[in-house]
UniProtKB/TrEMBL annotation:
This is DUF3040 family protein. The chain crosses the membrane at residues 46-66, 72-93. Pfam families: DUF3040 (PF11239). It comes from Actinomycetospora straminea. The keyword Membrane applies. Keywords: Membrane, Transmembrane, Transmembrane helix. It comes from the Bacteria.
């Protein structure tokens, strides 16, 4: 199959901007939630995840000093097996459309 030449890279022309604006209007009328998602999300703060990790490690460290090790191990195992997957599924569902109903 013959490959088409790539368009030149650079800013959009007025005609392309007008076409995109018309497409955005049609999408906004047909599905406003989809059009909002195309706008993107605000950026997350860069340093929030390392502080979460430090907090979790601090809680586990204090728990090891206060509670017997077996109970801490059981709590960590429960978090890894149940809490983390549920949190990830909830986060993933918030990222896009809800699953279709059957």
């Amino acid at each position: 199959m013959e490959r088409l030449p790539e368009p030149p890279h650079g800013p959009l022309t007025e005609r392309e901007r007008a076409a995109l604006a018309r497409l955005a209007e049609c999408e906004a009328a047909a599905d406003p939630r989809f059009a909002r998602r195309l706008g993107g999300r605000p950026a997350r703060r860069a340093g929030s995840v390392p502080w979460l990790v430090v907090g979790v490690l601090a809680v586990v460290g204090v728990a090891l000093l206060v509670v017997p090790g077996v109970w801490v191990l059981a709590g960590v195992a429960t978090a890894i097996i149940v809490v983390v997957p549920v949190a990830l599924i909830a986060w993933a569902l918030k990222q896009g459309d809800p699953p279709p109903r059957m």
